[in-house]
């Protein structure tokens, strides 16, 4: 197919990017028309099924991008955002753990799919595999939809607006700490998705089989499941800035040490996958600790803040792929002639003739930058708390 090599890699980033960036657009609608949240769930399921089923009959790559990339993402967004909204209604004190459980669900899919898809593709080919996946979505999701509902009564009338109650809508917009979080979240997003996209290629350059590559991805997602549950639990107990700084700084260290230095063989690569999944994968589960002081018991505001964080992370998801591709191309052009084969590679930086070196450094710097920004946010939050205590003491 013409342009297949350049368009096919766009399907994943386009799909996940749309899902991440849809929050600020879908949240005001389901807040203003709360009764249509459940309608959104059913429409989203239909679109997910129809997109994959139709994509299985396409003969052009552009059509595949449209159906499997764009249309599937729209359906996924209509499923995902209302579920986040319902979560804010059901949980308050343990909302962080509940978020961790929900976000861990995507990690479970990441464990199973790398192990299931290769046999399906080799046995049935891409078209039939897409049809099997579309039918699986219907069989797995539709029976659950009647049980997904909110705790609060949903009015059939249009709400007065998407703005949350009271002064919260004004306070979060003026919160310096929240916007520092958004910047740190964006840097984290620009780094997070790169290893997930490039780990199979890295494993191939280590002369590992496709099965071993799938195991590496599955282990990364396995670590992500554990990390999301653990971070979600800790976000209800620990200062979110301390938790965020610790995970981001540790992820940067893991990137440089386990990926850059030690991933010159299978053991190093698998170690990096598990550690990276555990540390970096849990970041989204920490969001509740940051947003809870701002949203209090208002589920609408909580969903709004989550939508903004999803959007900023989605920007990293969209742009990190072309950035990392450019870095690997730049490195391969400058180092292929000066570095030996993988048999003489003694560092992860040397794999593939050194073409991953700049990309690994880029990922490590993204997480280090995000960690430094959270350190600034932590200082801002401490200053704010001290001023509040000072005013309270003066009033007494």
UniProtKB/TrEMBL annotation:
<feature type="transmembrane region" description="Helical">
    <location>
        <begin position="242"/>
        <end position="262"/>
    </location>
</feature>
<dbReference type="InterPro" id="IPR050327">
    <property type="entry name" value="Proton-linked_MCT"/>
</dbReference>
<feature type="transmembrane region" description="Helical">
    <location>
        <begin position="96"/>
        <end position="117"/>
    </location>
</feature>
<feature type="transmembrane region" description="Helical">
    <location>
        <begin position="64"/>
        <end position="84"/>
    </location>
</feature>
<keyword id="KW-0812">Transmembrane</keyword>
<feature type="transmembrane region" description="Helical">
    <location>
        <begin position="129"/>
        <end position="148"/>
    </location>
</feature>
<keyword id="KW-0472">Membrane</keyword>
<feature type="transmembrane region" description="Helical">
    <location>
        <begin position="6"/>
        <end position="27"/>
    </location>
</feature>
<feature type="transmembrane region" description="Helical">
    <location>
        <begin position="268"/>
        <end position="289"/>
    </location>
</feature>
<feature type="transmembrane region" description="Helical">
    <location>
        <begin position="359"/>
        <end position="378"/>
    </location>
</feature>
<dbReference type="GO" id="GO:0022857">
    <property type="term" value="F:transmembrane transporter activity"/>
</dbReference>
<dbReference type="GO" id="GO:0016020">
    <property type="term" value="C:membrane"/>
</dbReference>
<feature type="transmembrane region" description="Helical">
    <location>
        <begin position="176"/>
        <end position="199"/>
    </location>
</feature>
<dbReference type="InterPro" id="IPR036259">
    <property type="entry name" value="MFS_trans_sf"/>
</dbReference>
<protein>
    <submittedName>
        <fullName>Major facilitator superfamily domain-containing protein</fullName>
    </submittedName>
</protein>
<keyword id="KW-1133">Transmembrane helix</keyword>
<dbReference type="Pfam" id="PF07690">
    <property type="entry name" value="MFS_1"/>
</dbReference>
<comment type="similarity">
    <text>Belongs to the major facilitator superfamily. Monocarboxylate porter (TC 2.A.1.13) family.</text>
</comment>
<feature type="transmembrane region" description="Helical">
    <location>
        <begin position="39"/>
        <end position="58"/>
    </location>
</feature>
<dbReference type="InterPro" id="IPR011701">
    <property type="entry name" value="MFS"/>
</dbReference>
